[in-house]
Amino acid sequence: MAHAQPGIFALGTRSHHHLEFDVLPDVAPTEVVAALRGLREPSVTAGGDNIIVGFGADLWRRIAPAESPDALVPFAGVQGDGRSMPATQHDVWIWVHGTGPDVLLDTARAVGRSLAPVAVLALEQPAFVYRDSRDLTGFVDGTENPPVFEAPEVAIIPDDQIGAGGSYVIASKWVHDLDAFHRLNVTDQEGVFGRTKSDSVELDDSVKPPNAHIARVVIEEDGEELELFRRSTPFGTVREAGLYFLAFSADPTRFDKMLARMFGVSGDGIHDHLTDFSTPVSGAYYFAPSLEALATLLG
Ligand code: HEM
After folding, report:
1. Which pLDDT score, from 0 to 100, does residue 46 have?
2. What is the C-alpha separation between 134 and 189, in angstroms, rounded?
3. Does residue 23 belong to any structural domain of this protein?
4. What is the pLDDT of residues 152-167, one digit of tens each?
5. Using 50, 70 and 90 to split pLDDT, how confident is the model at 1?
6. 214 C-alpha to ligand 1 centroid (Å)
7. Is 1 contained in some domain?
8. How far apart are CA 8 and CA 5, in angstroms?
9. What is the pLDDT of residues 220-252, one digit of tens each?
10. Is residue 167 part of a domain?
11. CA–CA separation, 37 vs 226, rounded Å?
12. With contact defined as beta carbons under 8 Å apart, do 287 and 65 qualify?
């Protein structure tokens, strides 16, 4: 049985750091793999921090063609009516998370040093758990996330498929207009998400607006709800604040279907009201291979 990288499911860490790299021209995939060997115990822990490694479709296909599912593709972006999500696909994504920002920075810097000879750092985003797992809008994020004992079924490719033990990843930085959001009264804020603010109770269908976030991302197919395992974390300074949206799935088409409904290109012309208050400034799909696939590569 193939095992997923355990850091995907390690909950309770409050400090997070995301690094997305572009491999330099003329660097061979084997050189990237050699550079990753420099990370101590990649995909497990370093000094108490979790390290999770993902690859863009093109690079992963060159590194491990036999472990590359057909469904693995680069993110193509979403062009909606007046709003869009850019494709900023990079080659390597590394997520480190742990209990505090001090040791985590050491780990993130060690990752950066290991990859510096073969890749440039294209996006870096430190992030954190805000209060009781709230988004900076003040709403609890994660209420309907599958519990950790069910999450592997949602997020991990089953044993009989190519890429078994791996997971499809969406990583996307969203910048909030918090001032505009907080100018809404609480009832209107609750309409944006479709849940109450204080205790995250789902609004009754009679009052939940059709463009509420959860009304757009809850999709049923053959009586089954399409599920993701989300690990998003807020980031923020006085100047810029938002959410690094991060989710894992055993089937990448779920990402496309949800985004199409959020950006009003799924056929009914409705866009997610959340996109009036938050704008994606990056978007990429990665593949987080199984522990066994990583061990074979990294030796
Ligand atoms: C600024 C960006 C986003 C914010 C602030 C945000 C926030 C939230 C909040 C507050 C909830 C309700 C509580 C919960 O169940 O977790 C939620 C639910 C959810 N979101 Fe998002 N979200 C964002 C982007 C996205 C994107 C891009 C997707 C999909 C590609 C997505 C998929 C989901 C799903 C599947 C649920 C669970 C719905 C349910 O089962 O009730 N979200 N989100």
Report:
1. 61
2. 14
3. yes
4. 999 999 999 999 999 9
5. confident
6. 7
7. no
8. 6
9. 999 999 999 999 999 999 999 999 999 999 999
10. yes
11. 36
12. no
Q: In terms of residue numbers, what domain contains 80? A: 6-298
Rounded (5°) CA angle 125-19-146: 80
Q: Which residue's structure tokens are 């050699």? A: 34
Choose the catalytic residue: 22, 141, 188, 204: 141
Q: What whole-number distance in Å separates Cα of residue 207 and Cα of residue 63?
A: 50
206 C-alpha vs ligand 1 centroid, how far in Å? 20
Q: Is residue 72 domain-resident?
A: yes
Work out how many domains the chain is built from and give that number.
1
Q: Which atom of ligand 1 is nearest to the CA of 134?
A: 10
Nearest CA among 46, 58, 57, 52 for reference residue 18: 52
Q: Tokens at residue 197, please?
A: 């603010």
Q: Indicate if the pLDDT at residue 42 is higher than 80.
A: no
Give me the pLDDT at residue 298, please: 85
Which residues make Cβ contacts (< 8 Å) with residue 198, sequence separation at least 6?
none
Decide: helix, strand or coil at residue 165. Answer: coil
Give CA separation, 213 vs 125, 224, 225, in Å. Answer: 24, 19, 15
User: How far, in whole angstroms, is CA 256 from its chain's centroid?
Assistant: 13
**Tokens linked to 111:** 């990752």
DSSP state for residue 203 in the 8-state scheme: P
